[in-house]
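job 3f2a | input accepted
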Amino acid sequence: MRRTSLLASALLLIPGLLCAQSSPLFDPNAFQDVLQSGPNASFFTWIQLAKRLGLAVPSSIGPCVATAPVGSSTPLQPPPGSGTASSGCAYFGPDAIVSRAEMAYWVVKAQMDEPQISYFLCATGGDPSGLSAGCGGGTLASSFGDLGAGGASIVNPFVGVSNAQLMRYIEVMVRRGYTQGCTSTIDPIYRYCPNDPVTRAQMSVFIIRAKMNNVFPTTLSGTPQPNPYGDNFGASTTPYFTDVTPGDPVYGPYFIYVQKMRDLGITSGTTPTTFSPGNNITRKEIATFAVRAFFL
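job 3f2a | predicted structure (296 res):
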């Protein structure tokens, strides 16, 4: 019920979504680099939904840009208080490549708010970031050895999200069985590789594990199930995409996850017949996946 009401509220607040309107003249609630017209127009609705739901946060703050109304070449100036050159306006960075640390943010925050994250970490051993008050027992070490103290080794892609927060989102990912890191489990350091990019194939695994975990727990979360990785859910067996098939030597292991993404309407591919599994996922794509997977 909470997510339904949040989404309904978000829908009502997006210009032009529920009723016909012209292009925004100056929308202080929109990111300056994602508007209803322009190169990222097809992602505008999804990114605005993510913003209204509290998921999409700025990647940077920059100049405020007024856009011209339809049929006019003269931009209108922003109204007072909506953003000035001194205060700056929010930029989303829609084409930025998503790192593994940022991916953890999108997956975990789509499912849990900050108090819920604190409660979960405290109930499962402690919070390595030290941000959860009342956990007791001091600050637990991170499951991964390459994040640095308080997440200091993470290249932070956001404005307004701390490295310590990113660290605890990553910790939720491993404790809930969404990831086993980026290297062999016999690696003595046990790395997460927080700054490595995420491919579309890899993202399908993280999204589906997170979405299906309550019903089909993975072996990574301690529940023995048949391979692959205990994600023992059903998916359509006829391939939707020619570049992700069961027998593919590279992307065959991702097949059930990509199929489930398409079954659930989370993706429609990069073309009607291709998924482009090896492409690094962009911020506009992950915002779309997160809204479709967890709020629709």
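job 3f2a | DSSP finds eight helices and two strands in the chain.
job 3f2a | closed
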